[in-house]
Amino acid sequence: MKIKYKISQKEYIRLMYFLAYRRPVVIVTLLLGFYIIYLDVKIIMSGQLNFIPMSSIVFNISILLVAFILYPLWYYYKFRKDYKTNKVISLETTSIFKEDIIQDVGESFTVELAWNNIYKIEELKNWFLFYHSKSTYGFCPKRVMTKEQISELRNMIKANHIKAKLRND
């Protein structure tokens, strides 16, 4: 099976945001931010704002800034920089899936990877992530694949007995 794609900066940043915002530290920070907003609204509505120490107000504002402004901005600039500095991501790529190997061919690179060298595969709504280790992965957009190709790739993954989280749609 052969597919051809080019990943845009916008697509890349969206994928990276999705992956970042499912990390436990980010989820906890966001939940803490929402909890602080809830408490602040409750205090303001009860009229007890004058009785809150200044240190608590500063702490609350700091958590809110980190959770809702600094994290998203830092991630955006990081992901944009990653996309611009890693020229391979933005190149047109042809992925060839064979029974024994996966081959990625781009304008300036060729990579061959045996199925047994893949740590795990995760299928998202719009992507396949091919993990080489616990934290490094390659990706392939599903937007360029037909339903038959997606099904064929799932079958190859199962046939090669790779640890995988595949969708049922």
Structure in words:
50% of the residues lie in helices and 21% in strands. The chain has 169 residues and is of the alpha+beta class. Strands 1-2-3-4 form a 4-stranded antiparallel beta sheet, with no helix packed on it. It has a 4-stranded mixed beta sheet with strand order 7-6-5-8, with no helix packed on it. It is elongated and about 70 Å long.
Summarize the helices and strands and which ones pair or pack.
Elements: E1 2-5, H1 9-20, H2 24-46, H3 54-85, H4 87-90, E2 93-97, E3 101-106, E4 110-114, E5 120-123, E6 127-131, E7 137-141, H5 147-159, E8 164-165
Parallel strand pairs: 5-8
Antiparallel strand pairs: 1-2, 2-3, 3-4, 5-6, 6-7
Helix pairs in contact: 1-3, 2-3
Helix-strand sequence: EHHHHEEEEEEHE
Residues in helices, as a percent range: 40-55%
Structural class: alpha+beta
Strand content: 15-25%
Biggest sheet strand line-up: 1-2-3-4
Estimate the global geometry from the Cα principal axes: elongated
Keywords:
169 residues, elongated, 21% strand, single chain, 4-stranded antiparallel sheet, alpha+beta, 8 strands, 4-stranded mixed sheet
In a few lines, what is going on in this structure?
The protein contains 5 helices and 8 strands, in the order E-H-H-H-H-E-E-E-E-E-E-H-E. With 169 residues, it is of the alpha+beta class.
